[in-house]
Amino acid sequence: MNVNDKFEPNGVKTVRFVAAGLILRGEEVLICQRRPDQPMALKWEFPGGKIEPGESPEQALARELDEELGISADVGPLVTRTRHTYRSGGAVDLQFFAVHSFRGEVTNRIFHDVRWILLRDLIAYDFLAADRELIRDLSAGKLL
Fold first, then answer.
1. Are 79 and 138 a contacting pair, CB within 8 Å?
2. Degrees (nearest 5) of the Cα angle 106, 128, 39?
3. Domain 15-139, architecture per CATH
4. Beta bridge partners of 72
5. What pLDDT, in 10s, does the model give residues 20-46?
6. pTM of the predicted protein model
7. Could you tell me the end-to-end alpha-carbon distance of the chain, in angstroms, rounded to an integer?
8. Beta-bridge partners for 114
9. How are beta strands 15-25 and 48-50 bridged, if at all?
10. For residues 86 and 57, is the Cβ–Cβ distance under 8 A?
């Protein structure tokens, strides 16, 4: 059990609502690797994070991209939304937004690694389970 897990009064885990960015540069997308000391260590993911109370998903994503990468992002349209339940019983509701422009230089503030890769090469990286369907679609040229 993770110290950050949230539970309803009946002991059932709640769903964590997350906004993530598909930061695009031509045919490339920015991907981020979790640190070795984090849950699901060294898995790849898209930058973003938890939607705080009172925030829209777009506001949460803009805040997270500033905190994680030091950029001021122009959050674009919703690309897809998915919900995934992990074996631990924890669930995540993910909203993925396109980010076609931002101000500032991408600076790795919290990740083990950050890379620009071709969309078609996404399938070669070990992503979080919740991202795998999206990875298949993006690498196949779908959604964007």
1. no
2. 85
3. Alpha-Beta Complex (3.90)
4. 103
5. 999 999 999 999 999 999 999 999 999
6. 0.89
7. 36
8. 32
9. antiparallel
10. no
